[in-house]
Write a structure and sequence with these properties.
The protein is mostly helical. It has eight helices and two strands. Helices cover 70% and strands 3% of the residues. Strand 1 and strand 2 form a beta hairpin. Helix 2 runs antiparallel to helix 3 and helix 3 packs antiparallel against helix 4. It is found in: Cell membrane.
Length: 216
């Protein structure tokens, strides 16, 4: 675990960082709800367009297309080994919140498509909107001491220890995932999917910075 467990923020003049009050239970609850709902909306848009995304969720979407299985079940199963890593490296609080977040997104991904639909959705705009929704969701989860498991756990762990931004770690994994996707999906679908994943990772890389705000 990192020895820096309190959130901090630089002062207005760019001087030394100062400690700020940590999130309370209610803060974390709304953060988890917001983050998981936004992520589930992103998945709904994604699967409506037949696209994939990056990280563990992207691998789950790709496998669900290939195997004909529900995204939620595949996503939850893929994350099981990473819960142990999260427990060992990030601690029980982070792991418990992440487990809850993964479970909520898995469940919401089943019901949200029945709550919303799209009469018209431009694929390019849909890919960008997926990245924005999912990025906002992940950002909220990161800031409240959680992730959506898998690569997110590794990315946050690396940022906590080295300062290397979580978004760039995820981008490297995504490059490998999308290279594999070219083997099973048509190029136009993969390119649109990469656009959405790029937007998502830029949201994280620009907004989730240890020198500005960390809350776990």
């Amino acid at each position: 675990m990192s020895t820096s467990t309190r959130p901090f923020r630089a002062d207005a003049s760019g001087g030394a960082a100062r400690a700020v009050a940590p999130h309370n239970l209610l803060d974390d609850a709304q953060g988890l709800v917001f983050g998981t709902v936004m992520a589930a909306v992103g998945v709904t848009i994604l699967t409506h367009l037949g696209l994939i995304t990056g990280q563990t969720a992207g691998l789950a979407v790709l496998l669900s297309y290939m195997m004909g299985l529900p995204f939620g079940a595949v996503f939850f199963a893929l994350n099981l080994p990473f819960f142990w890593l999260g427990w060992q490296r990030m601690g029980p609080a982070f792991t418990a919140k992440t487990f809850l977040a993964v479970a909520l997104v898995s469940g919401l991904s089943v019901v949200v498509p029945g709550w919303m639909g799209f009469a018209q959705l431009n694929p390019v705009f849909g890919a960008v909107l997926t990245g924005l929704c999912s990025g906002a969701g992940l950002l909220a989860l990161f800031r409240h001491g959680a992730s959506l498991g898998g690569v997110g756990i590794v990315a946050v762990m690396i940022q906590d220890r080295t300062g290397f931004r979580a978004g760039w770690t995820q981008l490297g994994f995504d490059a490998l995932l999308f290279a594999a996707a070219f083997l099973v999906l048509d190029p136009a679908t993969v390119i649109l999917s990469a656009l959405g994943a790029g937007v998502l990772n830029l949201v994280i890389a620009i907004n989730h910075r240890r020198d500005r705000y960390v809350a776990y």
